[in-house]
Amino acid sequence: MNKDGLKSSATVSVAPMMDWTDRHCRYLHRTISKNTLLYTEMLTAAAIVNGDKSKLLDFNEAEHPIALQMGGSEPKLLADAVRIVEKWGYDEVNLNVGCPSDRVKSGSFGVVLMRSPHLVADCIKAMLDASQNVEITLKCRIGVDEDDPYVILPDFIEKMQSAGVGRLIIHARKAWLQGISPKQNRNLPPLDYNLIFKMKEMFPRMHLTINGGIQDIGEIKTHLSNGIDGVMIGRSAYHNPVHVLQKVDCEIYNMGVVKTGFEIVEVMLPYIERHLKNGGRLNQITRHMLGIFSAQPGAKVWRRKISEQAYKKDADTDVLINALKSVVLAQKDSS
Question: SS3 of 167, please?
Fold first, then answer.
């Protein structure tokens, strides 16, 4: 995909989420929205260069447009990883400068790098030099600990723009490296959307995506109407994928049709059957499907039947078909 097409897809994206946005999760999200930009879980540059590349990097061609999020702080290693990822066919490589976990702190990457903008710029330049066609982007926070975001963030963005970054994703919260856990960092630091709007005014040539606390298509539309170029949605897209993503193609990209939860499950069945035929387990996919009927009659029985059956060694698509029948009955009873 060319960079203009990728920017268009980046109008709405699903965030990289560790242990969640694996290839099965992404295939499910792609089934719901054909246009939304999808991100992998974060992979370290060292793992990509030294690890099992097929296991780490393989994806289904239907997942395009797809971006790989990368962690690291060594320019040469990042450049080597970019070359590998580009050959694998990804559309974008996103450098993680926003994750506050203990793992990234000890590895000198993630949000701690916001305190070393010159190093980040060196990393970006090396990644850009290594890239032929894959787009290089960056994801960050608005600041770290006692930083004043209204001072720190504009300086950081200016340095990134000078390094060659054209698209930046900003989680509209600070990261606190001391005193709260990585999980609390997703919720406790207050959101400051207005700061992101101000950054767009200050850097009009920069494609800015806003991230953090966004729940549904109504909020997506609100942010876009405020002049933001893109909206990244995280946990709500995972826990309630149909509600969050089903209208995106029609209402944001002006194309496509709205699929119901029933239709999405039907479309997933051949994919699941292929996975089982190749030696996979049912629950490797269905764990991402538990929220398909969230907030609808039958949601509880859907989750229960899958949770009770899908982990079994011989579980097959009959588990889903039987669970669907229970949802149908529940919805008839509620009407």
Answer: strand
Residue 25 bears catalytic tag: no
pTM above 0.90, yes or no: yes
User: From the candidates 99, 123, 140, 250, which is the catalytic residue?
Assistant: 99
The candidate with the shortest Cα–Cα distance to 160, out of 108, 202, 102, is 202
What is the tally of structural domains in the chain? Answer: 2
Residues 293 and 163 in one domain: no
Q: Classify residue 256: in a domain, yes or no.
A: no
Provide block-wise average pLDDT over 10 residues at a time, the chain (335 residues): 82 96 98 97 96 96 97 96 98 91 63 91 98 96 92 97 97 80 66 97 97 96 97 97 95 91 96 97 98 95 97 96 95 84
3-class DSSP state of 210: strand
Q: What's 233's domain CATH number?
A: 3.20.20.70
Nearest by Cα to 195 from 142, 138, 128: 142
Q: Which tokens go with 70?
A: 């990368």
Residue 329 lies in a domain: yes
Residue-range definition of the domain harbouring residue 206: 3-251
